[in-house]
Amino acid sequence: MAIRLGLSLPQARQYDIGRDVPDVARTAEQIGYESLWVYERALFPEPATQGLYGIEGLAWPDVYRGVPDPLVTLTLAAASTERARLGTSILVAPLHNPFQLAKSLATLDAASGGRVLAGLGTGWSLDEYAAAGVAPFEERGRVLDEIIDVCRAVWGPDPVTYEGRITKIASAVVAPKPARPIPILLPTNSKKAMTRLVDRADGWMPIAMGVEQLATQWRQLQDLAAERGRTDPIETVVRINARHSPKAYDGTDRSPFQGSTAQIVEDLAAHVAGTGLDAFFFELQGSARDAEELKDVAAEIHESVRAAGI
């Protein structure tokens, strides 16, 4: 059976959000992409008070300037498509009020006919946490736990009740409800994050950074699930941060998913064979000049993947 392929929507500065997001979303669905994805970057500090990913001295990339709101972007895509699933990778959940986030995701899922995938994470930017004002950065794990609880409560039957550190719902009807239970997917970068995923989430959102690394992480997650008695399957969607080039990259130190369409497809085939995972999505929008180039590259890669029988 063919793997499922997704595509990131255009959120970088070179795109016209109102025009290009619906256009790319429609085209991607017509090409055959099964899912559409957005990420969150709330602001771009200038001057930066903290390095990228919290690493001192590491500059923020220019592509992070002016990233549009992820849920508004997905709403534009939802209104322009019929079948493609609509995912966040990653929504920095603790930047949002838990109740309002749960309500927004439920509304989007109801409006789209049950197509939302909620990829949630804690992020790393101190400036974003300060601007959002929901909770301190140091409390991000506890806030994510509360957000998951609030989502489950709000998406469940009425009357909804909840008592948490941030959110208090005495007893209320909260509608609309999602068209179906929205899957919550989490990344993992620590044993604590893996445990949260196994115990509380529906799925996993790793980044493809090499076959061996991804296969090792997947085995660790499966082992932990068995150890903790989880019997439900773990839905997995792998993010591919690709750098496409019209010509093949001939360097000996080529990173995975860097180079020509043929090289990217070859890397994808290796990751599928080495891990057994069957759902991937391409992040291509950051390096494309415009929406036309993004659509052309997305079509070329999709056609080549299917021609290779992956």
UniProtKB/TrEMBL annotation:
<dbReference type="InterPro" id="IPR019921">
    <property type="entry name" value="Lucif-like_OxRdtase_Rv2161c"/>
</dbReference>
<dbReference type="InterPro" id="IPR036661">
    <property type="entry name" value="Luciferase-like_sf"/>
</dbReference>
<protein>
    <submittedName>
        <fullName>LLM class F420-dependent oxidoreductase</fullName>
    </submittedName>
</protein>
<dbReference type="InterPro" id="IPR011251">
    <property type="entry name" value="Luciferase-like_dom"/>
</dbReference>
<dbReference type="InterPro" id="IPR051260">
    <property type="entry name" value="Diverse_substr_monoxygenases"/>
</dbReference>
<feature type="domain" description="Luciferase-like">
    <location>
        <begin position="19"/>
        <end position="240"/>
    </location>
</feature>
<dbReference type="Pfam" id="PF00296">
    <property type="entry name" value="Bac_luciferase"/>
</dbReference>
